[in-house]
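Section 3.1: Structural characterization of target chains.
Under the original work plan, the team committed to producing a structural model for every single-chain target entering the pipeline before any wet-lab resources were allocated. The record below documents one such target. The sequence was received from the expression subgroup and is listed exactly as submitted; it comprises 92 residues.
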Amino acid sequence: MPRALWVLIALLPLLSGCPEAVKPVPVPQVVRVQVPVYVPVPPELTKDCPIAEATSLMVEEAVRVANARKVALKNCNADKAAIRALAVPPAQ
């Protein structure tokens, strides 16, 4: 091909008035997105809490069951507090 044809091909975007050929392409910006991280709950925090049942109708048995249920409720509340603590992000 003659040299004049190559020059004409190189100058064609400038001669056609195409603005995309003259303007530089903008560089994309980096966008940082914070992604939530889900922490798995340990199995020991989600196990069922024992329920004390009375075996007789004696007063001593009722007191034992009430005390056992109180202990189970305290343990259950401690498990729930540990689960809530998982949601708090650690201090850096």
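Residues 20 and 48 are 67 Å apart (CA to CA).
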